[in-house]
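Might you be able to review the protein record set out just below?
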Amino acid sequence: MQRTRVKDILASEHAGPALLKGWVRTRRDSKDFSFLELNDGSCLANVQVLVDHTPELLPLLERLNTGAACAVAGEVVASPAAGQKWEVRASALTVFGEADPETYPLQKKRHSDEFLRTIAHLRPRTNKYGAMLRVRSEMALAVHSFFHGRGFAHIHAPILTGSDCEGAGEMFRVSNLEAATATALSPAEREAQEFFGRPANLTVSGQLEAEMLALALGDVYTFGPTFRAENSNTPKHAAEFWMVEPEMAFADLTDDMDLAEALVCALVRHALAHCAEDLSLFGNFVDKTLMTTLTGILDQPFVRLPHAEAIRVLQASGRSFEFPVHAGSDLQTEHERFLCEEHFKRPVIVYNYPKEIKAFYMRLNDDKATVAAMDLLVPRIGELVGGSQREERLDVLQGRMTEAGLPAEPYWWYLDSRRYGSAPHAGFGLGFERLLMLVTGIANIRDVIPFPRTPRNLEF
């Protein structure tokens, strides 16, 4: 018989035979029968299984404690219990894997997030993290659906790179050489012995490569892992995380802001439509304001204002910020959240930042003081999207690289794209884990990725 999923049983309109495979959440024993609560990960709810204490079933039943994996063959029947339509009457059991009740760490009680991070290999079996992973899967599908519907080509950017996209130097170097060997060599000797014949790093962004393909295919996007060697332990930062990075040819900053707003709204709308059961868990137990926040994002267009105006709003607020603001300052999380949570009470797109605080590839505006950059800010998170119109003029780009102290040689191929058929283009990066924090209400990035990589933490 084909396997029957829990979500299919709970949504069924008809009784009938079923073969259910999953994990025991609880077992309750009576004199002549027992109830198993079984979950297979397909949905938040469990299905109740009634097992009679027959000579054939009882020895197997006694091996099934919380956490054990099993198969149940039986009949789906109407349940007399309140709150559930169906239950399964077992006729056969198979025990795949037992779970010692003395040592299995996930018992029927609420565990702290801090404890669950220490058992990240088991925490997906909890209601919260199972729900988060289903939402994560659904949001990934929504990303691909959004861009496919708009004619974007999905491209694959390399994970290993010889270029620093951000110009900040916070990169993980990758080498085939043992550390002791590498440190004993001169820079020239080490480079000669490196696998690639030059220094290699894990990518911090697929943007530069996406630009090359956008200048051939038109509209493209990449969706993959990125890595930053930033020694930060904030709830918003991880060393390994996923980015959604679209790039559009023949596009300017307005096009970029339009696309970012449309994407965020589409993803929130998809979550509300397709993840209702899991979002209800987060709304009830993680963030009571979650549904209000999500529906509020869709209520009206996002605010758009220049960076200089955002600074004036912050200075006039009367608030005492930990990080004081001035004309040339970047926005910190406290400033971003004030703008979208307290002042405007909706998402905000800040654009035209001072050139000194943004990357070399962002297009210099006519005022020579600002660049055509934008950040999309949302409640509880702050910056969700960062993007810009790219500098398509070769001479201006070379000047910006010189100002940033970047050597031209590693970027020869990037500069070539400005020599041959250069065109206006724009794009952005959306932090996928930050999106998940937004739609689930989970406050720490470590809890929206299966196996978080953060400073001093590389378990599992």
